[in-house]
Amino acid sequence: MRFTTEKRTDDVLEREFTLGDIPGILWTPASTPAPLILLGHPGGLRRMYPRLAARAAQCAEEGFAAATIELPGSGDRPRSAAAEEARADLRRALEAGDPVDDEIIDRLVLPLVDTAVPEWQAALDALVALPEIDGPVGYSGGVISIGVRLAVVEPRISAALLFAGSFVPRSMIEQARQVTIPLLVLLQWDDEGNDRQMALELFDALGSQEKTLHANMGGHTGVPRFEGDDGNRFFARHLK
C-alpha cells in the first residue's frame, strides 16, 4: 500500500492510496487506533466521492475509520468487454420495460464478485496492518452481492450494513444462507434500478440470527440521512 495524497477536513484525515493498480481512500478520525468500516459502492470512485466522503464523515463522528477501493472495470481501471456487453444488455432490457433475464445478471454480477472480493481482502490485509486501525471490521454499502460474499468468506468482518440497490444473481440467494454475522439491510422501495422482490427474497434467505430490514420510500439515491445515524448505532453495538 502506498499513500499518494493527504488532506485534513475538520477532524478527519483523508489519504488516497494505491494497492498495486487499485486506487483507494482511507479516512481516519482524530482518535486512533479505530475500528474500520469498509465502504462498498457500485464503482466510479471519483463519481461516488461526494457520497463516500459524507458516509466516511458520519463514520468518523462515531470514532470509526473508513476505507474504500475502486471496483474492477470502473474509474480508470481497465474495462471488461464482457461486462460492458452485459451492462448494455441490461440497459436495453430496462429501457424496453422487459424483465431482466437471469443470464444477463449472472454475466454482469458474478465475475465482478469473483474479482472484487479478493481485492477487498487484499486491501483489508494492508489496512489492518496500519497502526491507526485496530479492532473489528464492518462492511457498509453495495454492491450487495459483494457484501454477501465478503460476509461468507471473510472472518474479519464482524457486521455488515448492506445496500439493496443492485440486481442479485440467483446463486447469491444460496450463498446468503451461509451468512451468520449481524446485518442491517437498507432498501429504497422505489429504486428504479433494483428488483424489489429479489431484494426481499435475498433478505429472507440471509442466515443471520440478527438481521434487520429498513425500507424507505424513494429512489436509488434517496436514502435518508438518519439511516447513517442508525448505521453508526448498529456498528457501535458490534464493533466496539
Average of the residue pLDDT scores: 94
Q: What is the CATH architecture assignment?
A: 3-Layer(aba) Sandwich
Task: State the distance separating the first and last CA atoms.
Answer: 26 Å
**Strand arrangement, largest sheet?**
1-2-3-5-4-6-7-8-9
Count of discrete alpha- or pi-helical segments spanning 4 or more residues: 7
Profile the largest sheet.
9 strands, mixed
Question: What integer value in Å does the Rg equal?
Answer: 17 Å
* DSSP strand content: 25-35%
| Highest-level CATH class | Alpha Beta
Describe this structure in words.
The chain is α/β, with parallel strands linked by helices and about 240 residues long. Helices cover about 40% and strands about 25% of the residues. It has 7 helices and 9 strands; from the N terminus they run E-E-E-E-H-E-H-H-E-H-E-H-E-H-E-H. It has a 9-stranded mixed beta sheet, sandwiched between helices. Strand 4, helix 1 and strand 5 form a beta-alpha-beta unit. The protein is globular and about 50 Å long. The model has no long low-confidence stretch (mean pLDDT about 95).
Structural features:
9-stranded mixed beta sheet; Rossmann fold; 42% helix; 7 helices; 240 residues; alpha/beta
Summarize the structure.
The chain has seven helices and nine strands; from the N terminus they run E-E-E-E-H-E-H-H-E-H-E-H-E-H-E-H. With 240 residues, the chain is of the alpha/beta class. The longest helix has 27 residues, at 102-128.
